[in-house]
Amino acid sequence: MILRCLAGALMLAVSAAAAGEGEPLQHQLLVFGSAEVASVPRSNLTTIYSRSEVLAADVLFTLQRGPIKLFGEFELNDHESDLERFQIGWEPSEHMVLWLGRFHQPASVWNSEYHHGQYLQTPITRPGVENWDDDGGIIPQQFTGVLTESNWNLPGGRVLKIAAGGGLTSVLTPEGLESFDLLRPDADKHRLGYQGRIALMSDQFGESGAGLVFAQDKIAWRDTPPAPFPTLRYVDLTVAGAYASYAHGSWKLQAVGYYIDAQLKGTSFRDSDVLTGYLTLEDALTPNLRVFVRREDSSHLSEAPYLRLFPRFPTARSTLAVRWDFMRRHALTTELSDTYTATDHYFEYRLQWSAALR
Question: pTM of the predicted model, to two decimals?
Answer without folding.
Answer: 0.90
